[in-house]
Specification:
The structure holds 2 protein chains of 2 kinds. Chain A contains 7 helices and 1 strand; from the N terminus they run ααβααααα. Chain A is mostly helical. Chain B has 6 helices and 3 strands; from the N terminus they run αααβααββα. Classes of the chains: A mainly alpha, B alpha+beta. Chains A and B meet through β1 of A and β1, α4 and β3 of B. β1 of chain A pairs antiparallel with β1 of chain B.
Chain lengths: ~190, ~110
């Protein structure tokens, strides 16, 4: 219910794109450090920005709705944390312990790991009432994870990057579509 | 196996406040959210303003929802949230309906 305006998907899409960039940046110091700055900005300010847009545009246009708390502890610990801490794990193993082989294995299996995690991530969203599309997303993400894992060597172990870019693009476009549909709804007023 | 009389008695015991389609729609929206405003209900249900006002008042009188009214500028802004009593009533209603339909269908 709370996500009908598509803003959550829109920002999550942008977030995923920069998230994959941050893993790339960790692996390659010559990468553009601006990505980290933009990622940090998106991560830190997406919540308040979404709230601002909702308060001034979508709520005043189509009504205010506050959804139920959507993140439960099992979801947080089993899905969100493993995804969120993946770059941190890589950073620690690579730059502190110099475990290059372990990082190589992690990168090789990363599309599969993310495919499984995203299957549960989208499935959870579907079960929480985010809509039927999330059910499709969950299966497609899982298949995409397997597909990219198989062809990861052709992508020079950057299958995870493709995985996040595809997921980010799909969520961004889906969010945009939802936002357009949402804003087309009739504007009215309680007192009119 | 229940007789027709038993089923008929069950129908009479159904919560009529919730059973009305518009109120059932409003209750199901509120059950799945924390709070919504008048405009959201208006757009979701496609009911008239008068209808929403009447049905929400009825539900409020039964203690199934709470209404928070405030002024934004010179305009009224009403926010609705389901109460614990309302949640239990809706759960009891859906359970009773399911059971009844199971017994009625061969």
């Amino acid at each position: 219910m709370s996500q009908r305006d598509g803003l959550s998907e829109l920002f999550t899409g942008i977030f995923f794109f920069f998230y994959s960039s941050i893993i790339m940046t960790l692996l390659d110091f010559s990468s553009d450090a601006k990505k980290i700055a933009i990622f940090t900005f998106v991560f830190a300010f997406s919540g308040p920005v979404i709230q601002f847009i909702r308060k001034h545009f979508t709520y005043s246009h189509s009504g205010y709705v506050k959804g139920k708390a959507e993140i439960t502890k099992p979801f947080l610990f089993l899905i969100v944390f493993p995804i969120a801490f993946f770059p941190a794990v890589i950073g620690v193993f690579l730059h502190i312990f110099h475990l290059i082989d372990l990082i190589g294995s992690l990168m090789l299996f990363s599309p599969l790991i993310f495919g499984i995690l995203f299957f549960f991530y989208y499935w959870y969203q579907y079960r929480a009432g985010a809509g039927f599309f999330y059910r499709i997303f969950s299966f497609v993400s899982f298949i995409l994870g397997i597909f990219l894992f198989i062809f990861n060597h052709l992508l020079q172990n950057e299958g995870f990057y493709v995985f996040f870019v595809i997921n980010g693009a799909v969520l961004f476009l889906f969010g945009l579509f939802k936002l357009i549909v949402f804003m087309k709804r009739v504007k009215s007023n309680e007192n009119e | 196996m229940k007789t027709n009389n038993d089923v008929f008695e069950q129908i009479l015991l159904i919560d009529k406040t919730i059973h009305e389609p518009a109120r059932l729609f409003i209750m199901s929206i509120l059950y799945n959210t924390e709070e919504v405003d008048f405009l959201f209900l208006l757009n979701e249900t496609q009911l008239s303003k008068g209808n929403i006002a009447t049905h929400t008042k009825k539900l409020e009188e039964e203690g199934y929802l709470t209404v928070k009214k405030e002024f934004v500028g010179k305009k009224t802004h009403s926010t609705y949230a389901i109460t614990e009593k309302g949640k239990k009533a809706l759960e009891a209603y859906t359970a009773a309906m399911k059971q009844m339909l199971d017994e009625m269908t061969p």
